[in-house]
């Protein structure tokens, strides 16, 4: 039994401590280690190496190889920008022009 207390933080910590843990519980973020030089290939390999699809629903934490930095949204945003440019690069042949 928990002694009566009005301390919200203590109650919250006890609540979190006593929550049942689900088997294979997913953390709150997924780290992607990518290289800027071949961002398309390293991103593909990093994403495809994740077996549990639930992990992909968590927070994305991008780490560029050889660079130090904290990702509070800026590196992820930059990763999406660079990757989107590479995806539509005609060199890869992922998309083709339509006559319509």
Overview of this protein structure:
There is one protein chain. The protein has 100 residues and is of the alpha+beta class. It contains three helices and two strands, in the order αβαβα. The protein has a two-stranded parallel ribbon. The N and C termini lie far apart (70 Å). The mean pLDDT is 81.
Query: Mean pLDDT across all residues, rounded?
Result: 81
Amino- and carboxy-terminal Cα gap: 70 Å
The proportion of residues forming helix, as a percent range, comes to 25-40%
The total of beta strands comes to 2
Structural class, judged by helices and strands? Answer: alpha+beta
Low-confidence stretches: none
Rg calculated over all Cα atoms: 21 Å
How many helices? The count is: 3
Strand percentage, roughly? Answer: 5-15%
Quaternary structure: single chain
Overall body shape: elongated
Task: Reconstruct the topology from this structure.
Elements (H helix, E strand, L loop, with lengths): L7 H11 L10 E6 L4 H10 L10 E6 L9 H14 L13
Parallel strand pairs: 1-2
What key attributes describe this structure?
100 residues; 35% helix; 3 helices; two-stranded parallel sheet; alpha+beta
Quick structural summary:
By secondary structure, the protein is an alpha+beta fold. The protein has helices at 8-18, 39-48, 74-87, and strands spanning 29-34, 59-64.
């Amino acid at each position: 039994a928990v002694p009566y207390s009005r301390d919200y933080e203590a109650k919250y910590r006890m609540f979190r401590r006593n929550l049942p843990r689900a088997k294979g519980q997913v953390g709150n973020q997924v780290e992607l280690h990518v290289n800027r030089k071949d961002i398309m290939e390293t991103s593909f390999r990093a994403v495809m190496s994740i077996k549990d699809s639930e992990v992909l629903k968590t927070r994305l934490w991008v780490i560029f190889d050889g660079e130090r930095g904290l990702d509070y949204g800026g590196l992820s945003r930059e990763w999406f920008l660079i990757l989107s440019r590479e995806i539509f690069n005609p060199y890869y042949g992922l998309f083709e022009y339509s006559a319509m």
